[in-house]
Amino acid sequence: xxxxxxxxxxxxxxxxxWGFVTDIEADSVAPGLNEDVIRLISSKKxxxxxxxxxxxxxxxxxxxxxxxxxxxxxxxxxxxxxDYESIVYYSAPKTKDRxxxxxxxxxxLLRTYEKLGIPLQERAxxxxxAVDAVFDSVSVATxxxxxxxxxxxxxxxxxxxxxEHPELVQKYxxxxxxxxxxxxxxxxxxVFTDGSFVYVPKGVRCPMELSTYFRINARNTGQFExxxxxxxxxxxxxxxxxxxxxMRDENQLHAAVVELxxxxxxxxxxxTVQNWYPGDKEGKGGIYNxxxxxxxxxxxxxxxxxxxxxxxxxxxxxxxxxxxQGDNSIGEFYSVVLTNNYQQADTGTKMIxxxxxxxxxxxxxxxxxxxxxxxxxGMVKITKNAEGARNYSQCDSLLLGDKCGAHTxxxxxxxxxxxxxxHEATTSxxxxxxxxxxxxxxxxxxxxxxMIVNGFCKQVFRELPMEFAVEAQKLLGxxxxxxxx
Amino acid sequence: MLExxxxxxxxxxxxxxxxxxxxxxxGEVHAIMGPNGSGKSTLAHVLAGRDGYQITQGEAIFEGKxxxxxxxxxxxxxxxxxxxxxxxxxxxVSNMYFLRAALNAIRKHRGLDELDAMDFxxxxxxxxxxxxxxxxxMNRPVNEGFSGGEKKRNEIFQMAVLEPKLAILDETDSGLxxxxxxxxxxxxxxxxxPERAIVLVTHYQRLLNYVVPDxxxxxxxxxxxxxxxxxxxxxxxxxxxxxxxxxxxxxKSGANH
Lengths: 485, 257
Fold this sequence. Notes:
By secondary structure, chain A is an alpha/beta fold. Chain A contains 11 helices and 23 strands. Chain A has one domain. In chain A, strands 5, 6, 8, 10, 11, 13, 15, 16, 18, 20 and 22 form an 11-stranded mixed β-sheet that branches. In chain A, strands 4-3-7-9-12-14-17-19-21-23 form a 10-stranded mixed β-sheet. Chain A has a two-stranded antiparallel ribbon with strand order 1-2. Chain B is an alpha/beta fold. Chain B has a 6-stranded mixed β-sheet, sandwiched between helices. Chain B is globular. Chains A and B meet through helix 9 and helix 10 of A and helix 2, strand 7 and helix 3 of B.
């Protein structure tokens, strides 16, 4: 038996392999937040006047929330108070201008992304995925732009979009997640530094996956990115984000906002593989991932589908949601959340049914191991005018060991009697007897856990684009290894 | 094939096996009978390598190798199969996927190529016929929602696919109605062969009407108190275990054949 224990020990102690730091000179502002910092961020980005005004309004709102101590406290997560004055709100790798092409990108940055498994060299990309790479506060490279441009698709960093497509940004920014939405959304609106922007014109089906890769590198920085995706009538786009960060003993805040808008007959598929540094085995360090994601199915027959695989972060607080405004619109939420060691997650979705015959599906799979705490929190709201609305929710929890926790908080609010709402929930545990059964048939403990967990998550994984499904399975395997002994 | 010598095993401080001696040769079918709590299932679990038992004395040599030093999965790959008394349900993992992974792990260990999905399916279909299994069971999660009889049948079906050298069937007859017992028994009989040894752990004699053993051993209080041929099972059926416990001479060496 001792050999087995040794391997498990080894696996538990396996390092977070994305935890390295890139040694690159950074242009950072001093820690702390005030109107001058916001003006500085805005001027560094050469933003038009409307952006600065919006940021300042958001900042003042946030200050009022902070005074009122309105940081959300209802989630089932626990952490010491965040000192917002100690955070660096802007940090960018030093370069003169944004590089025009990949050849101009600092080779150190290119190496960083290569090390992360995200080759930015277009010729190296065989999978046909266009990538926007965000390093600390700024986007450092966006690939396949010309090819997408030929179809009229705009895929660029948020900063560029603000400068080059201000009319689109002004029209849609904050239209789904206004800065008044919540504490972290207000903070993000005030200080966000970059992110990705996508516009898919009428009738265009985006021929490749678009993806953003977020990387936190600098110490003490917060990452506040903002993503805005607009799918015009009859268009389709599939978008994926991935994230990693170095290993550090202190916690780092990541407060992002994502807004999606789907017009008539448009579909947006948004997939996340979140692998921020989760902290060490004792729960020291790691990212606070406090994110507001929401999509609006504005047009009739529109569809927004969220898929998330969350294996990282010390604490996750996010509820990718859908406002189903257009008649016959569809909202989907597929989620796999793993908490191991001392990780905490309070995540789920909100499906707000406004239009007629709107439909939503929620499939949530929570896996808790070690001392991990995993909470599903979801709201299904059927408003008075949402004739014929339907929802199906399924929340399954899987426990590994007896020190972890799984919690489910479904909120159902139904104001229309024609609605059909279904909720199913299960909790199961990987038991010693199951593991022994696998082993007696010739399979190792690791194979057993991985087969059970993958089986448990299958329903969600099949929603991911192929290459990321493989990635997600691997990630889950690495994050779980050694959690059963 | 398997030689058990003076095997002692405990759970915590409670000694359950108190010196088992048993020799099993290829091609033989042994029945291990005994009253509740005599250590029958413990013996099966100890041989398969389940956690929670301390081996305090003795050894078990399987084909020249120290069986008790191997991990459970190594024992399985070497050809030791345990049909569980209570087969475990595994949600989300299909029977087909599970069994193919198991077979390939064993094949790999034996230096054989892994079977692809097509070859596997072809092989499995033939084996299913033997046990009169419904093909739809293959696509369902392992044992999930199976009736008691289906679970037991599935165990024997797995045995048919994995083709072990030594199969230990732990109370395979319990919970089976008479038709299911007949089907399962036929399955077991088909798997008898000159290369394979089978150990039937059972409380009742009825399984032995269908699967006729070469040897019968009676376990009581952690020791083999009597060994004999198939007629011993009938005797037990008539007289019960009490007869043995009363008349048992202290048998130290157990079975020798």
